Amino acid sequence: MLAQATSSIRQQELDANLAGEAGDTPRSAAQRAAEARYIHDWTRRVEDYGNRVHPAPSHLHGQLRIRVVIGRDGQLRQAEVVQSSGHTELDQAALDTVHGAGPYRPFDSAMGELDSLSITRVWRFGQGNHFGVR
User: Which segments does the entry list as coiled coil (predicted)?
Assistant: First the structure.
């Protein structure tokens, strides 16, 4: 069984923002880099947890877009499916995974005074229903 992933427009925007602009200060670039590391770590944690604990029903496959908001303390503040897979069971498996994988690590000092972080990702459930988050 192989985890599958797909790129999202949101990730492309994040990558573009992380590239920075000519007028950026080192602190803002460092903060964006810390946020990108946090999102990468979050993605791996959710994907690993979901593949171990909340695999979707084996007869279904599909793709959905989910949005989560994580507070500075690592607590999940919000989780919602913003674009359904068309299968309630898959959508619920994604939400169960996000809730079950928490709490997440608190923000580190490199993330500045950021109060919360919103992460939007496309998840694809594939054959065997392991999933990838991107």
Answer: none
